[in-house]
Amino acid sequence: MGQYEAVIGLEVHVELKTKTKIFCGCPTEFGGEPNTHVCPICLGLPGVLPVLNKKVLEYAIKAGLAINCSIAEFSKFDRKNYFYPDLTKAFQTSQYDLPIAEHGHLDINVNGEIKRIGITRLHMEEDAGKLVHQGDTISSSFSSLADYNRAGVPLVEIVSEPDLRSAEEAKAYLEMLKAIIEYIDVSDVKMEQGSLRCDANISIRPVGSKELGTRTEVKNLNSFRSVQRAIEYEIQRQIDQVEEGERIIQETRTWDENKGVTLSLRSKEEAHDYRYFPEPDLTPLVISRDWVAELKNGLPELPEAKKARLIAEHGLPEYDAGVITSSRALAEFYDKTVCIHPDYKGVSNWIMVELLKLLNAENMEISEAKISPEGLAKMLTMIEKNIISGKIAKQVFEEMFNTGKDPEAIVKEKGLVQISDEGQINSIVEQVIANNPKSVEDFKAGKEKSIGFLVGQIMKETKGQANPGVVNKLLKDKLNEL
Amino acid sequence: MKISIKDVEYVALLSRLELTEAEKVEQLRELNKILDSMEVLNKVDTSGVEPLAHVLPIYNVLREDELRATLPKEKVLQNAPEEDEGMFKVPKIV
Hints:
The complex is a heterodimer. Chain A is of the alpha+beta class. Chain A has 15 helices and 17 strands. A nine-stranded mixed beta sheet of chain A has the order 3-7-8-11-1-12-13-14-15. Chain A starts with a strand and ends with a helix. In chain B, 38% of the residues lie in helices and 10% in strands. A two-stranded antiparallel ribbon of chain B has the order 2-3. The mean pLDDT of chain B is 92. The chains are: A alpha+beta, B alpha+beta.
C-alpha cells in the first residue's frame, strides 16, 4: 500500500456468562424456543423496574482489570435511544460518559515485535433480540420476526484506541483479548456462537500524516478470518477510492463473507442521534476500592505472564510457549500434565505436535477431546521406563485422544509393549541378517548406511515394538562378529 | 423562540412520529414553553455542583444472579400486533 497507512480501532462485544440477564432473572442460555426466556422487564413492558445483576458488575470489573483499565469509583447507566425492532424499549440500556472501566491497554506480538494497543473504555450494556428476516436479505425481505430471548443478555463492549495499523495487528489484538477474557472465565468468547463480536473502524491516511481520515465502520465479522479479510479488503477499497480522486464517505458497511467484499449499509433514515440520558430506573454505582482490590487479587495468571514464565522457568521456546498459552484450556492441560510429569519440553512437544495435529484434523476444542493430562503423563512415564517406544506412543496417544482410555490398558489390549528382551530380539536380528545378505555385504564393505535398512527390517518384523537401543546394540555386535 | 419547525421535524423523525402542519406548530409552541422553563434553571449558578446522576441519594441496588420465572409464551405474545412461529412479526425494516 506504499504511501498510505491504515488506522484501525476495534469495538468488541463480549457476552458475559452469567446465569441470568443483566437486569432481570431470565436465563441467558443460548437457544430455547423463541420468546420463552423473557419476562416483563426484558420485554420493556410499562411499569417494570430493572435491577442490575451483581455478577455482571463483578465480571465487568474483572475484565476491566485484566486489560489494565482503571475502574471507576462512580459509574452509571444511560439510555441510548434509537428505533430498531430488535430493541423492546426503543432504547438500549448502556453506559455513556461514566463507563465502569477506562484507560487500559494490552500488548500484542506481531512478527516478534511487541506493540502496546490502548483501550479507551469498557462498559456494560444489554444485548438486543434476534431478528429473522423473511426473504433473502434484509432489504429484499417483506417482514421480519423478532425473538427476544437474547434481549437483556449482559455484554461488555471494549473499545480500542485507533492504534492498530494492519489487519494482522487487528487479528493479534483480538486473539489476545479473547485469550485474556477466556483466562478470567467471564465469557465463552466463541465468535461462531456470537459470544465474541467485533466491529472495525477503518480509515487510511498518507504515511507521516497525523490527521485521521474519514472512517467507515465494518460490521458482521463472524470469525477471526473474516476480521482479517474484511479489514484487508476495506483498506484496499479506500486506497482505490482515494487514488481515483473520490472522497471516503463516513458510513457503516457490512462484510459479505461469500463475495469477500464490504457493502454499504447506508439508508436515508439513518440519523445517528442517540440522545443519551441517565437511566432513571437504575441507581448509580459507587465501587469500593476494597472490592476492586479483592477482584484484582483473585485474577488468575494471564496469558502474557504465563508465557513469560514458561519461557523463563520451563525453558520452552517462545513460539511453543505462545501457542500453549494462547488458549486457557490448552495452558491448563499443559500445567496439569507437567504437575504430574515435570518433563516440560517433552509435554510441550506432545501438545504442540500430536495433540494440536489431532485437534486441527477433527476441528475440535481441547475440552471436547477425551485425552486427559493424567493419561498423557502416564504415557510419558511409560516411554521413560522403556515400556513403549516413542513410535508406539503415537498410536497410544491417538487411541487416548479418541477414547480417553488409560494408556496401560491400551498397551495391554493391543499388545504394544516394547520388546527389550535380548534373546527375543537376537533371534529376529539373526533372521534379518540371514535374509538380507546384500545389505550385510554392503555394511562389511564400509557402507555404514546399510545398517539403517537392517534396523528398519527388524522394526518391521516386530511391528515397531522392539526397543531401538537394544536393536542397534545387538545388530552391531552381530555384524562385527561376522 | 428556542427552536424552529425544522427542529420539531427532526425530533419527530427520530421518534418516528408523523405530524400534520398544525401539530408541528402546536409542538413547537409546547416545546419552546418547556425550554423557557429550562431557561429559569439555567440561570442558577451551578459552578462547583456535581452533575446529578439520579434524583434519589441511593446507590448500588443490585440483585444476585438467580433465576426467576419467565412469562408464559401466550402472555408474551398477547400484545403482539402480528405473530408468526412464536415471534413478533414486524414490517420491513430497511
